[in-house]
Amino acid sequence: EIVLTQSPGTLSLSPGERATLSCRASQSFSSTYLAWYQQKPGQAPRLLIYGASSRATGIPDRFSGSGSGTDFTLTISRLEPEDFAVYYCLQYGSSPRTFGQGTKVEI
Amino acid sequence: QVQLQESGPGLVKPSETLSLTCTVSGASISSYYWSWIRQPPGKGLEWIGHIYYSGSTNYNPSLRTRVTISVDTSKNQFSLKLSSVTAADTAVYYCARSSAFDIWGQGTMVTVSS
């Protein structure tokens, strides 16, 4: 099983600032199978990034993903008020599919 | 657009079987894989398993002995059964379209309690 470790656990920032979220895997896998999600309280997760760097439909270009092997990054270039949420990474290349434990981006 | 909707009891007694259904609208279930994912209160996400329209399944080893996922293509639905539940199975249960979980249902809270 591939274990994904996200850091930091909590990121305290202000609107307009840049957020950098990390997702590290216990073993290397193809970046084709790395995704990022945003979840707000009481809502289902929303797909932001798939294939490590491809934005999902309707996702603003302030969200970008990068990385390969075991190290992946989600960057939010300039935080908007609606971006404060919990972010999860997911690997979907091997079974079982596994999520990171989440990073909370708070004001 | 494609929408997913979970349905089923919100309260299940310990040792009994949790049963949920996901109805797919706006697209045929006869393509893609379809998954169940859960989230205990205040915690992270756990993939339970997925099914292809043909009936082929893949389960999380942590739950494999208790999980059954099935599909009914005539109703455009797929279902989850989780047996011998305990309080640890209390969670919001989501259905989602695989492989990158691009579409999710709104989720349904299931509480295991006597």
Explain this structure.
- The complex is a heterodimer of chains A (107) and B (114).
- By secondary structure, chain A is mainly beta.
- Helix content of chain A is 0%, strand content 53%.
- Chain A has strands spanning 4-7, 10-12, 19-29, 34-39, 46-50, 54-55, 63-76, 86-91, 98-99, 103-106.
- In chain A, the strands form two sheets. In chain A, strands 2, 4, 5, 6, 8, 9 and 10 form a seven-stranded mixed β-sheet that branches. A three-stranded antiparallel β-sheet of chain A has the order 1-3-7, with no helix packed on it.
- The mean pLDDT of chain A is 97.
- Chain B has 114 residues and is mainly β.
- Chain B has no helices and eleven strands.
- In chain B, strands 2, 4, 5, 6, 9, 10 and 11 form a seven-stranded mixed β-sheet that branches. In chain B, strands 1-3-8-7 form a four-stranded antiparallel β-sheet, with no helix packed on it.
- Chain B has strands at residues 3-7, 11-12, 18-25, 33-39, 46-52, 57-59, 67-72, 77-82, 91-97, 103-104, 108-112.
Descriptors:
heterodimer, A: 107 residues, mainly beta, 7-stranded mixed β-sheet, 3-stranded antiparallel β-sheet, 0% helix, 53% strand, B: 114 residues, 11 strands, 51% strand
Give the arrangement of secondary structure elements:
The complex is a heterodimer of chains A (107) and B (114).
Chain A: E1 4-7, E2 10-12, E3 19-29, E4 34-39, E5 46-50, E6 54-55, E7 63-76, E8 86-91, E9 98-99, E10 103-106
Parallel strand pairs in A: 2-10
Antiparallel strand pairs in A: 1-3, 3-7, 4-5, 4-8, 5-6, 8-9, 8-10
Chain B: E1 3-7, E2 11-12, E3 18-25, E4 33-39, E5 46-52, E6 57-59, E7 67-72, E8 77-82, E9 91-97, E10 103-104, E11 108-112
Parallel strand pairs in B: 2-11
Antiparallel strand pairs in B: 1-3, 3-8, 4-5, 4-9, 5-6, 7-8, 9-10, 9-11
